[in-house]
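Protein folds are increasingly written down as discrete tokens. With that in mind, we are printing a sequence and the tokens encoding its fold.
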Amino acid sequence: MLILIAGPYRSGTSDNPELMKENLRILESAALPLFRKGHIPMIGEWVALPLIALAGSKMPGDKLWEEIQYPVAHGLLEKCDAVLRLPGESKGADNDVSIATARGLKIYYSIEEIPVQTR
């Protein structure tokens, strides 16, 4: 399965780049365990952040950032089979879960819930 890892990225950081980097590290920490269970992990920021930089965004939440950040995640949800929702307050991740639920995707709340898939 292609599994979107959703959780806090910008939330609770006051746009502090170091805190946002730490949140991304936490999201990424779930990627290898998912891969080892036979799945392909995806994080919206892996796609959005390079595009945001190329667009010339100056800060989180500016017009260019908003144009790209959430639409990328929503587009990825059209391709994903499931969502892994990591702990922590996040309007964006909660919105991802709502969209995924409406599309009938499976929502997991821990890596342990996700079945092993043979390749």
